[in-house]
Design goal:
It is a single chain. The chain contains no helices and 9 strands. A hairpin with a 5-residue loop joins strand 5 and strand 6.
């Protein structure tokens, strides 16, 4: 049996992106690309494609049986973990403009969600608000 994953873009506007991820795990873990910048709408001002996103806010619920936290990572040659999620909480980074991509070697601008091995039946819901960048 494989993890049951729902990964959707709720809103893709000129400046803001909202993503929703939900999983019911089978115990094996997985990595899901929750932001693929190549598929996002281009700028309505200059026609440029989105190249990066900043995390403005994240709301999440990770089931209590999960002994390993979910991680958000900037996609690169070696992914860079920038947020760990466990329990039920909300983080708001809007006061300082959001968490910025580190631009590590091989950066793609995409964002991965990593759910490590866990107990079968564990669940997680992650809703992120992103600020789009057009470098």
């Amino acid at each position: 049996m494989a993890d049951t994953v729902l990964n959707t873009t709720v809103f893709d506007g000129a400046k803001k992106l909202i993503t929703h991820y939900n999983v019911v795990g089978d115990g094996t873990g997985n990595t899901t690309k929750i932001v693929d910048v190549s598929t996002l709408a281009t700028s309505t001002l200059n026609g440029k494609p989105c190249t990066r996103v900043k995390l403005i806010q994240v709301d999440f619920h990770v089931s209590a049986n999960n002994t390993h936290a979910i991680r958000l990572a900037w996609d690169a040659t070696t992914d860079v973990v920038f947020q760990t999620l466990n329990g039920e909480m909300s983080y708001d980074y809007s006061a300082f403009g959001g968490l910025k991509n580190t631009n590590a070697a091989g950066v793609t601008g995409d964002v991965n969600l990593i759910m490590p091995a866990h107990t079968s039946g564990d669940t997680a819901t992650v809703v992120c608000t992103w600020l789009k960048q057009y470098d």
